[in-house]
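Hello, quick one for you while I still have it in my head. No rush at all, and the record is pasted right below.
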Amino acid sequence: MSLDFIFRLLGMVMFALVGARLGVDIAAASGLPADLSSFVFALLGMLFGLVLTPWITIRPIRAASKAINEKPPDVLVLALAGLLLGLLVGLLLAFPLSLLPSPLGDLLPPAVSLASGYIGLTIAALRARELWAFIGDLFRIGPAVSRIRRGPATERQLLLDTSVLIDGRIVDIAKTGFLGGTLVVPRFILNELHQVSDSSDPLRRNRGRRGLAKLNELQRDPSIALRIVEDDFENIHDVDSKLVMLAIQMEASIITNDYNLNRVAEAQNVEVLNTNLLANAVRAVYIPGETFPIHVIQEGRDPDQGIGYLEDGTMVVVAGGKAYMDRTINVTVTRLINKETGRMIFAEPA
């Protein structure tokens, strides 16, 4: 029995009791017998409880828990500090506002307190890394906080798309320090990841959750400069088009492994860093005539061909390799094919 179902049952009972009591109270005004009015309103209460209970109980808690789990500790600390500061400002404003004539004097103090707390929370959460860097410089807290790099190294902005976050290799690449810039994740990319992670398809759901986990890993690493931006283009619905427009607006580069996005961005003179090309560039290079061992694991498309794979995933097509299925043999390279989608090696038994 799911937690949603349990809360729906509890909500049905509670709303039914409230509805029954309400029906008795307004029976005289409605002109209905008390028993009939109580029964009708109890049924309406059961209906409302069945539909609305998860939306006012378990689902808001899940959404809050999900948002908290995705935020790194430094962002959570500053968000809480921003909330407290906003509430303090609202408290200071509450007394003069309460002196206004009714109903303003009754309504404005709580409204201003809520608005101040929300504004403080939002500003602190969105600018957490910049605020930590400022605090680090102001109080000389040392490199642990100020390691969020500034200056020439962070002038280069690198937009991450959904595919590269789901792929996950960007985390290891960023940790090497070769990127030399600030990683930027637009809010619409984060929203797309959330939609994928909530998909009914298990494969898509797992891919989306992997992307969110990798983003969280990037956020938690203090050596990686990363920020989330709220920029959006309401008149553009395609996420790839939004990303290209944002790259043009910010004069930023795009990191992706999506071949179609790669072509679209290059057509609009946007610099693209393709992680597949990087992976191909750092793979082991074999030239024609070299010999190496390979384990033949499957048949090829052509007769008598065998297929094996190197540790980095490079496909090796062995002419006459079908006879060596499930065996490790030495092969000699005959030719190479390099493409944006990957590298293939053609060989024959040595």
Q: What stands out?
A: Residues 73-98 form the longest helix (26 residues). The radius of gyration is 30 Å. Residues 71-135 form one domain.
